[in-house]
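Submission sheet (multi-component)
Chains listed below:
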Amino acid sequence: MIFSGDVMELVRSLAAYMLTSVGYWKIFEKCGLKGYWGFVPLAREYNISLCADREEEGRVYTIIMAVSYLAYVVNIAKLENPILQLIIVVSFIALFITSIIYKVRIYIGLIKVFDRKKRWIWLFLFFEALAVLIYGVSSKFVPNRKVTIYSGLDGAKVSGIQAGSIENGLSVNIEKRTAIDFFRKKILLQDIHLNIPKGHMVLLLGGSGAGKTTFLNAVTGYEKADASIKLDGEDVYEEYTKMMYDIGFVPQQDLIRGNDAVQLTLEDAATLRLPSNVNLFERKKRVKEVLEEFGLQSLKNTLVEKLSGGQRKRLSIAMEYISDPKLFILDEPDSGLDGVVARGLFERLRAIADQGKIVIVITHTPDRVIDLFDDVIVLAKDAKRTGRLAWYGPVDEAYSFFGKDSMEGILLSINQKDEGGEGLADEFVEKFAEYHKEKVG
Amino acid sequence: MAGEKIRRRGRIPQTFIYLGKLFRMFIFQSDWKVLPMSAVIAGLVAFAVGANLYRTMEGTLTGCFALALICIWNGFFNSIQTICRERAIVKREHRSGMHISAYVAAHMIYQAFLCILQAGIIIAVLNTMGVKMPDKSLITGYPLVDFAISLFLITYCADMLALMVSAFCRTTTTAMTVMPFLLIVELVFSGAFFSLPQEAMILTNLTASKWGVTTLCSQGDYNSLPMVTVWNSVVKMKDMELEGQRPIQEALVYVEENDMRDQFLMDTAKQNQKPEYNFDPDIPLKCWGYLVIWTLVYVAVAVVALEFIDRDKR
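Outcome: structure written.
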């Protein structure tokens, strides 16, 4: 009797699985995905989240289901150790509850994509196979969006032109920067070649997701790419432990302990960043110089948390500046600052560049300070959503290249249409490659 | 000189940078508050269970369990938020050349300082409230020093466990959600207070509470103490009649009249002695060893977890 009960349960589970799979198959086809994924465990959980426009939840749901399947298989093996049994049962219950929550989120997304009322969720919860079949088979159920698989699209052509190497400045030759994202290989950056001479202040422009931070991380050696990055002829990747002190990176947020005084913060930064043969007297002298240069002398005994946004930003920059880096990179240093304070900050950065350093800045409000920059790097997402170089050169030439009179206008032209832009990224990437080829010869 | 290798500050000087920061935080920020808090908790526990600590078997077990839990509570609170609250700063500093091992070492030294103070505070509070403490030494020759080392090691082990959790959690909210769960595990799997199935006893080796209770009981010579539960139960049953007579009351009167009460208490205790709580120097040494091993494991895991901090997304 027990045996026949087990068989019946197995048949019932298999039938429900098959019916759900058929429903998924048809839903996937309606969403522009391959239908056969509907029959493949885990792939179907992930793909249904793509159809539902809930990829983030889908990733978690897929992992939960993978562990649940594993726990189910182990449970079938009927372990004799009661502790292991207990752990599996408790884990199974916890996973089951979590999976229900994620399933609800994904199915609510699916209902929304199919423009149906939310009450459908009850059918999905209690008669999942039936609900999925209806959504898949019925011709009245049509999704309002299709899933875009970017890897299947053609992006802008790869130029393959190298930037060469300069002795006094930064040479960047990034072939590719890839990352594994949920078992899939993604190309984040491709074909970026440029040389920045010393003393230049460069604006890094690009829409959301164009790879600005990835580019900076690749240039600083923090996240290595398939690339050759040379600073004053020295390979940043090969000499990373030495070169990291020649590169100052100021993050967007002011990541400084609020409960320390300004001078002590700088003294600790100096001890951490300066060579060990710099003695205490020289360190104190350097701290004093930097305090004065950044207008923080009168605030040296003030706690960081008592500083204004602009003062805190200056301290954050000073912490990197203290080791006198050759390359200075700032990620949105003006975020949260008003126009006058931001202008003052950029003028200070210009003065740093004039000392013979390279300053690269990301900002979302470039037009108010564009006169202070020498060059602009424009990164754009191509059709495959890979970060590509759409321009590198003087600011005034960038205007004529893009046919725009402002940086915001340039940004608008390269942004994808679904982001409210003109969707001309691929066109400009290829145009710049041609321009670059002509220039290099 | 061209080509000369520039040396940067290594792990030891970096450790001192962070120690300086932590001690400044202790003085100028709210970190010092863990000290009066530990005094208040010790006072409450001494008031609740101090009367019979190291006087009876039951009082000793309850008291040692409560003492171990005070230490674990203190340890958890000392460091559960320390790393996760400044995770983004740690990431930035790691990028600027900070060694994770130096950062964790600074925390280890600073937290050891806090734990030593807390162990001292607990002893001072227990002493002030007239709670009996071990009067024979097993290891150092000074019973209070043995006792203090045990309290310190339990606190420090819990502290490093919390530091490890703090190294894993990305936000203080997550860390504070995990903490009660860990407390429950320490409570249930102490192996002393709650009856666990034999198969689950192996899990008790993972907890600081088990080694803490064991060493505290052993140092107090648990097996030489009287047991009062049976006597108290018998006294409660003294009016029970059997065929018009009260045999239990008669027995009690006989015991009292012949001054045999203490012998009765000791005889019942003898039936309930636990070899793991023997007054034997090997037992505290073994417990201290386990506490140190777990502490080192937690620290090692914390360092490894933080080495991956660069993978944090913005």
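Remark: The first helix of chain A runs from residue 2 to 31.
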